[in-house]
């Protein structure tokens, strides 16, 4: 059985790294891990860059319990991902360059060597409501059965892994590759490239 202290330490480490890389705003993003029939997820409105042990909420994967009101607003999406994929960890962020690109294209094709090797391309999904909606919960898991990470148009990324560090690494790779594309274009015509 996983120790809540060990889980918190991993959340704190990944949250701090994500904040340092600029993958979300002060109170943006969320992450979770699945342990048996339980989910450990960041608290609604928590600061991922400076998490405390109280910011990790334990809730059930299926049933409604008293902790559900404390969990991230994206809990419905995390639950759906765990039910419909083999993921044991979910990392949701708002990487700024990738999010900007998502508003201009239907998929992000990564052509630098690392991005292409690890991710190749990232689908962009458009929904009417993007934050914690049932629509997102219904759509996202289908894509995450095939892809390691997906983008919600104008909102952010959802990535999965067997470990939280793995899910985080896919988001970090995506944003780094998008920076390379931006630098290569020197910002000129970045959002008008016909390949995106």
Write up this protein:
Helix 1 packs parallel to helix 6 (164-185), helix 2 packs parallel to helix 5 and helix 3 packs across helix 6 (164-185). The termini are far apart. The protein is α+β, with helices and mostly antiparallel strands and 196 residues long. 39% of the residues are buried. The longest helix has 22 residues, at 164-185. The protein contains six helices and eight strands, in the order H-E-E-E-H-E-H-E-H-E-H-E-E-H. It has an eight-stranded mixed sheet with strand order 3-2-1-4-8-7-6-5, with helices on both faces. The protein has a single domain (4-187), classed as L-fuculose-1-phosphate Aldolase (3-Layer(aba) Sandwich).
How would the blueprint of this fold be written?
Elements: H1 4-20, E1 30-35, E2 38-42, E3 56-60, H2 75-84, E4 89-93, H3 96-102, E5 107-109, H4 113-118, E6 121-125, H5 134-144, E7 149-152, E8 156-161, H6 164-185
Parallel strand pairs: 6-7
Antiparallel strand pairs: 1-2, 1-4, 2-3, 4-8, 5-6, 7-8
């Amino acid at each position: 059985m996983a120790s809540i202290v060990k889980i918190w330490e991993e959340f704190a480490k990944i949250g701090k790294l994500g904040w340092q890389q600029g993958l979300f705003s002060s109170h943006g993003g969320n992450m979770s891990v699945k342990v048996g029939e339980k989910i450990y997820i960041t608290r609604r409105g928590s600061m991922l860059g400076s998490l405390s042990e109280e910011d990790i909420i334990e809730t059930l994967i299926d049933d409604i319990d008293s902790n559900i009101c404390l969990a991230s607003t994206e809990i419905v999406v995390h639950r759906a991902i765990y039910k419909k994929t083999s993921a044991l960890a979910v990392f949701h962020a708002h990487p700024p360059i990738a999010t900007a690109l998502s508003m201009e294209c239907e998929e992000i094709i990564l052509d630098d060597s690392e991005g292409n090797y690890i991710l190749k391309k990232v689908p962009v999904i458009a929904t009417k409501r993007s934050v914690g909606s049932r629509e997102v919960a219904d759509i996202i898991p289908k894509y995450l059965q095939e892809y390691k990470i997906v983008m919600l148009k104008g909102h952010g990324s959802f990535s999965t892994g067997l470990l939280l560090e793995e899910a985080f690494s896919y988001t970090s790779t995506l944003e780094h590759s998008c920076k390379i594309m931006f630098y290569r274009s020197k910002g000129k015509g970045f959002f008008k490239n016909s390949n995106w």
